[in-house]
Amino acid sequence: MSQRTLAGVIAVPLLLALWVAALWLPLPYVTYEPGLTVDVLGEERDQEIIQVAGEKTYRDDGELRMTTVYVSQPRARVSLVEVMQAWLSDEKAVYPYDSVYAPDETAEDADLESAVQMVSSQDEAVAVALRELGYDADPVTKIQNVSRGLPADGGLKVGDILLAVGGSPIEEPADVAEAVRSAPAGEPLAFDVERDGEEVTVRITPKRVEGTPRVGIVPGPGYSFPFAVNVNIDPDIGGPSAGLMFSLAIYDTLTPGSLTGDATVAGTGTIAADGSIGPIGGIQQKIVGARDAGAELFLVPPDNCPDALGAPNDDMRLVKAETMHDVVGAIEAWVEDPDVALPACSASATGTGERP
């Protein structure tokens, strides 16, 4: 066998091995694909998703569907095959890893951030819906997350309103960290909270973690409401992007008749205290999910409009959703006349989506 032939015999398997490695080695990309949709006027595990105590509610037909996106997790192995499949699909998307995640971000970091965002978005959604109906919603500091295995686990709960820590009144989230840092080492610290309309005192001994005393809670801005409203959503669903749909569902639950006229309306968008609707990530994938769920109308945050126009929405109408108040009016007008002119997305809008 000549040297040239021998070199060829050796080179071909090596070349094949390199191609196989290139196909399956992880690449620095993140893939997005359509996720599930949830009718927030419906039930979750045999319980109403929108739960209200102390005020009359109205349960009618029609659906308000929040939309989700499946996103590859931090440090997940995304192969060339998966990247190419997402890139070639008109229903999926692929983005550079560092445009979605921080270099040192872990799946646990992403899950915590997503859980905190979900709790915060629910509080904003309730506040906006109640204010739209003429109720008051007073700012407070609430517990947005309790870490497993740290001292507060089992004592404090997500949703507790923080009144005082160690006798010091709590006016904003930063006050909590300051009170914990100032507490005598190794001694129980009194947390005065409001829970289910009652004041409760829980004593917790901080634990030093990396040299800093901690109890294992994430305090954040929230609201106190005139009656109890709870969003009973699957804890595996996180992020702030369902704020608009939660707010609409709460509004619908507290008003007679079906807001959607017994039809299916889907959408997405964060909700701010003033009722304005902010951008989200994965708009095209959410539109595909809503289309497949049979939605007739899809509510799009203004900054997401340029990307939304490129989604395969078929006959589902895309409506630009600027504020909660405007959206309620648009849906009511559409129920009266399905052919009515509605605020429409245009390619001239600017802005970029956020992570879902």
What report would you give on this structure?
This protein is an alpha+beta fold and 356 residues long. It has helices spanning 3-24, 80-88, 107-132, 173-182, 243-253, 283-292, 305-308, 324-336; strands at 29-39, 43-44, 47-48, 50-53, 63-71, 93-96, 138-146, 161-165, 168-169, 189-195, 198-204, 207-209, 212-214, 217-224, 228-231, 264-267, 270-271, 277-278, 297-300, 317-320. It folds into two domains: 32-97 and 107-135 and 226-336, 2-Layer Sandwich (Ribosomal Protein S5, domain 2), CATH 3.30.230; 139-223, Roll (Pdz3 Domain), CATH 2.30.42. The chain contains eight helices and 20 strands. The strands form seven sheets. It has a six-stranded mixed β-sheet. Strands 9-8-10-11 form a four-stranded antiparallel β-sheet, with helices on one face. A hairpin with a 2-residue loop joins β2 (43-44) and β3. The radius of gyration is 24 Å and the shape is globular.
